[in-house]
């Protein structure tokens, strides 16, 4: 029998068997990342087929992967001039163009292909993605509408509607276009009984953008709303729409239903209190009774013995309620005569709820993050000094009841879990007292004694951390962090005295001991980084920063810990490396963002596509990225010898067209030469 007709990879058209064998060998070399061999095979195959676009596109790819970028782009532009229509050639060439930010060439390539074959959906998809790279939302809408006319699928009408939403976000004056998007979706929905959940969410989002909250709520409660499979998500959306419509009483009931099912949904409890506050005053009797009744329901959600104690939401909800009431009374938002509870009663209720939460959950590592907002509130309000002192005295009393034996052998027979719980409870109380500024301002002798006490307790608890993974935080790590903070506080108070720097050195040594056991603790490594930069030791700061293994979005949020300190310490090479990391992350994300957003479009996640584009915009406008770009130029000048020719070369892109060395000389501060 004759052999079956072979089809090359990438969906290319059938070719002769000899060419198929050559292409197979090339693809195998590319799949194994052996691009030099693939390039050699491609050049050999081109001798017998000089104008084969498949071979030429593969050659361009191999040139790009073997660091011959200029040749690769030149070859791709030659293919562009001749025109390409085959999918596998277009996709291969687009890889090279994308790597070199040739967005205009990608668009031209797919415009030509789609003009030759308008009914080819792959070409239209490529064109849509090309316009997406350029953020040309008008053209995206036009392509989506053409696709919908050819094939009236749900996704295409929402591609067009989402493109319109993006146009309005880009220019709010185009808000009338939202009516066109709504009309398109309604027309499609009228002829289709079934819509996906993401489509329903996208349409509700569209109505919200138009300010048609009542219609959005009606649509959600209709048959299409049933496509939202998770009932809690549907209720959350309903409650949000009710809040937008100022139906605060109905919204509170919806949030209450959510919280009975999900007692630890903290965001919903916040919105529940918001709804009650807008319906009544936060200090009113109705608000207090409604909130406390809901908290009791939340506590009884898991009736099994002991299980309800794991729910932090109900107890923390009491703290939040009285915190809001105190805040309202202090800011005169509530009329003192109209308030149903006096300031003293509210303060007492807050203190009782705060201490009750600590008693229940002090053994959890989240105790300080949970209560930090309320502790900061106590520290900042002078009117609450007595309340703060009362809380401190209560915590001190609780701490004395949690004495830990100096020798762990005294706890033999006690389950390890219970031992750790007692230890964590003690540490939790110490952490809370620290952020309540219990240790701040201690006399020098008392401060050093306090440090010795904390270090001794840390040594006692080391055996309880022996089986914890090295990438996890140790049981008592925060004790040494607090001890380090005490030394930093001493330095701030006594830095003008002789030997004041020794306090910083002591703080750094304590943290070094900590990271020797918990080397992946990024919090303490960042503390070390800041201390070393303050002491003018950039290399040690660099080592601490690198141990944090900061990458991806963390480069945007955490790079400031290291960058400016390095520049101040004249560690220009390290600072330049960090600037390069930040810019490489942002530019790498921008290079791939169009593919990610198109992936969201293609899989029906229309609201996610908008969110991802918003994230891209925020990243492009981030301070860390702007600082990295600016500082990289300055560092390049400093590391380049600071002579005028080198400065001209570095600043050439920014000064293109000036052509005057005097201009460059005026831009470079004269003090650089003696810095």
Describe how the helices and strands are arranged.
Elements: H1 17-31, H2 35-46, H3 53-65, H4 69-82, H5 87-99, H6 103-116, H7 121-133, H8 137-150, H9 154-170, H10 177-190, H11 197-209, H12 213-221, H13 231-244, H14 248-261, H15 266-279, H16 285-299, H17 312-330, H18 343-361, H19 367-380, H20 385-400, H21 416-435, H22 444-461, H23 477-494, H24 501-517, H25 522-535, H26 538-547, H27 554-558, H28 560-568, H29 572-602, H30 606-620, H31 623-639, H32 644-650, H33 661-667
Helix pairs in contact: 1-2, 2-3, 3-4, 3-5, 5-6, 6-7, 7-8, 7-29, 8-9, 9-10, 9-11, 9-30, 10-11, 11-12, 12-13, 13-14, 14-15, 15-17, 16-17, 17-18, 18-20, 19-21, 20-21, 22-23, 23-24, 24-25, 25-26, 25-28, 26-28, 28-29, 29-30, 29-31
């Amino acid at each position: 029998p004759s052999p079956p007709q072979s089809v090359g990879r990438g969906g290319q058209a059938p070719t002769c068997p000899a060419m198929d064998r050559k292409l197979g060998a090339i693809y195998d070399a590319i799949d194994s990342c052996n691009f030099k061999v693939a390039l050699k095979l491609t050049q050999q195959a081109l001798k017998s087929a000089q104008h084969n676009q498949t071979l030429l596109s593969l050659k361009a790819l191999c040139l790009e992967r073997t660091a011959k970028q200029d040749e690769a782009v030149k070859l791709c532009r030659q293919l562009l001039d001749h025109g390409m229509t085959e999918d596998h050639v277009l996709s291969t060439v687009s890889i090279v163009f994308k790597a070199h930010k040739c967005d205009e060439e990608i668009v031209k390539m797919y415009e030509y292909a789609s003009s030759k074959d308008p009914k080819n959906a792959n070409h239209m998809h490529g064109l849509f993605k090309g316009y997406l790279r350029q953020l040309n939302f008008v053209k995206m809408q036009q392509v989506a509408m053409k696709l919908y006319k050819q094939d009236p699928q749900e996704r295409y009408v929402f591609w067009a509607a989402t493109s319109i939403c993006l146009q309005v976000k880009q220019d709010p004056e185009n808000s009338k276009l939202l009516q066109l998007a709504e009309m398109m979706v309604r027309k499609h929905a009228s002829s289709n009984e079934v819509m996906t959940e993401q489509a329903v969410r996208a349409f509700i989002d569209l109505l919200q953008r138009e300010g048609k909250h009542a219609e959005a709520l009606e649509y959600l409660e209709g048959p299409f709303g049933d496509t939202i499979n998770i009932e809690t998500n549907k209720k959350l959306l309903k409650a949000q729409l009710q809040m937008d419509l100022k139906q605060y009483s109905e919204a509170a009931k919806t949030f209450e239903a959510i919280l009975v099912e999900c007692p630890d949904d903290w965001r919903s409890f916040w919105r529940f209190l918001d709804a009650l506050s807008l319906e009544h005053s936060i200090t009113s009797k109705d608000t207090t009774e409604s909130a406390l009744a809901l908290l009791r329901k939340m506590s009884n959600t898991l009736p099994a013995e002991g299980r309800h104690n794991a729910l932090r939401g109900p107890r923390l909800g009491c703290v939040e309620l009285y915190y809001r009431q105190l805040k309202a009374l202090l800011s005169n938002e509530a009329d003192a005569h109209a308030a149903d509870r006096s300031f003293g009663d509210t303060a007492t209720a807050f203190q009782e709820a705060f201490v009750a939460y600590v008693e229940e959950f002090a053994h959890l590592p989240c105790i300080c993050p949970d209560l930090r907002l309320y502790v900061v509130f106590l520290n900042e309000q002078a009117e609450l000094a007595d309340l703060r002192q009362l809380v401190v005295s209560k915590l001190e009393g609780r701490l004395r009841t949690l004495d830990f034996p100096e020798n762990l052998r005294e706890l033999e027979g006690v389950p390890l879990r219970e031992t750790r719980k007692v230890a964590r409870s003690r540490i939790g109380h110490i952490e809370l007292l620290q952020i309540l500024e219990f240790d701040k301002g201690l006399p020098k002798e008392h401060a050093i004694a306090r440090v010795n006490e904390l270090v001794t307790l840390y040594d006692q608890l080391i055996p309880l951390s022996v089986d914890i993974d090295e990438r996890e935080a140790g049981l008592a790590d925060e004790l040494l962090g607090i001890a380090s903070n005490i030394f930093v506080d001493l330095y701030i108070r006594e830095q003008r005295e002789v030997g004041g720097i020794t306090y910083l050195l002591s703080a750094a040594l304590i943290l070094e001991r900590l990271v020797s056991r918990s080397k992946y603790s990024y919090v303490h490594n960042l503390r070390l980084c800041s201390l070393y930069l303050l002491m003018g030791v950039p290399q040690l700061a660099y080592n601490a920063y690198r141990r944090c293994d900061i990458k991806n979005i963390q480069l945007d949020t955490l790079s400031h810990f290291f960058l400016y300190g390095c520049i101040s310490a004249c560690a220009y090479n390290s600072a330049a490396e960090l600037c390069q990391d930040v810019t490489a992350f942002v530019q790498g994300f921008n290079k791939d963002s169009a593919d990610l957003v198109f992936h969201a479009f293609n899989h029906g996640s229309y609201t996610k596509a908008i969110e991802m584009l918003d994230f891209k915009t925020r990243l492009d406008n981030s301070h860390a990225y702007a600082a990295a770009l600016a500082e990289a130029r300055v560092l390049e000048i400093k590391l380049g010898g600071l002579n005028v020719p080198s400065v001209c070369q570095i600043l050439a892109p920014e000064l293109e067209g000036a052509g005057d060395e005097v201009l460059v000389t005026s831009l470079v501060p004269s003090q650089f030469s003696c810095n």
